[in-house]
Design a protein that fits this description.
The protein is of the alpha+beta class and about 325 residues long. It has two domains: about 10-145, 60s Ribosomal Protein L30, Chain: A (2-Layer Sandwich); about 160-320, Alpha-Beta Complex (Phosphoribosyl-aminoimidazole Synthetase, Chain A, domain 2), CATH 3.90.650. It has eleven helices and ten strands. The strands form two sheets. The protein has a six-stranded mixed β-sheet, sandwiched between helices. The chain is globular.
Length: about 325
Amino acid sequence: MTRDHHQSREDRLIADYFRPLAHHAGAFALEDDAAALTPPPNCDFVLTKDAIVSGIHFFVDDGPGDIARKALRVNLSDLAAKGADPAGFLLALALPDAADDAFLRAFADGLSADSDAFHCPLLGGDTVRTDGPLMVSITCVGTVPHGRMVRRRGAQPGDRVVVTGTIGDAALGLLLRQDSVWAETWGMSVTDAQTLVARYRVPQPRNTIAPVVRAHASAAMDVSDGFVGDLAKLCAVSGVSARIAAASVPLSGAARVAITRQPHLFETALTGGDDYEVLCTVPETAWPAFQTAAAAASVSVTAVGVIEEGTHAPVIEGEGGRPLAFGRTSFSHF
């Protein structure tokens, strides 16, 4: 984070809230204009960047700590899908006037907790004042053994299509966050409703499975814009298609309660996004080892279909093998 002697409040802001997160030697205690990293022997750096904006990716009244955690975790999710281990991050903050010291303390505390939990120290960044909404932009750096980053390209016919965790919780949680009356409509307990909202507010990146993806997956990405649309992206760049059994897509108990009451919500679950689960393809011969290693990493994994030859859009089969049609396949900003 650049320090300018004409901006004493920014100097204090950096010193008070963010220097404690910059414990990597290459961050130089945030006293320089850049950081320095040396990759481990025979390793490559993996770089990813995501920004979140108030009113688009989170609500204005969401807790500052949750906002900070979401900003870091959506980037950590990308590293997990690439088979990369976190090495550090750069932070850019565009702060409105409403972001007072109490906000900054809670934001920094949340960021610090996740920085420690995921072994991903702050390396530097920038802070600016804005007349617009709060914006948090993070660039994450990870490492992988040389040449071992798992790309989207690489899926082959016959590979299993695999996802971690459960799909659709965050999309349903967003509906509940927009209007809590949905919980009553869906006949949902307070606990189930809170679970879905929490999945939207604070994603659960699957970084413990990164070595498993690296060892066994032929292609991978994280599910950020919706399972159906993201699978189509992976297939398109790999020059293949896929056939998915809709009934195999893993759903949480809370999501099943909502979908049982209103079956059309299944489309929301499959296309709404914000899951931040890993979507990958695994050769049939590697599937037993993948399952075993994922279980050892305490990450649930589900095979939901198979990669096929062809360049047509993936087919999502419902009851009786009937292809399902979706109004839209994923979230898009544009």
